Amino acid sequence: MHNQSLPILAGFASSMIFISSNLPMLFKAFKTKDMSSYSLGYLILSNLGNTVYWLYVISLPIGPVWFLQAFFSTASALMLFCYLRYERNWFHF
Questions:
Q1: DSSP per-residue string spanning 18-75
Q2: Who contacts 42 (Cβ-Cβ below 8 Å, separation ≥6)?
Q3: Among 47, 48, 54, 84, which has the highest number of CB atoms less than 10 A from its own CB?
Q4: What is the pLDDT of residues 11-69, one digit of tens each?
């Protein structure tokens, strides 16, 4: 196996595991529309952190970290969207 094949394979495998761990949360949010266990502050900071982290990721060659960061950014944005759409008391952090 080539020297860089194992780290790339491990990166893709861990990315798939992380993505799989987040999918049930997303499906539940869309299905139940119950966002009461999330805080607006957490969701805003998560989106801000993902945005800033992209400044680092874009400096790297395209690889597993790009796909993982794209998923995390999308999932975080979707959760914020769900919160703002379905939670009635979102003025309370």
A1: HHHHHHHHHHHHHHH---TTS-HHHHHHHHHHHHHHHHHHTTSPSSHHHHHHHHHHHH
A2: none
A3: 47
A4: 888 888 988 998 998 899 889 988 988 999 999 999 999 999 999 999 999 888 898 99
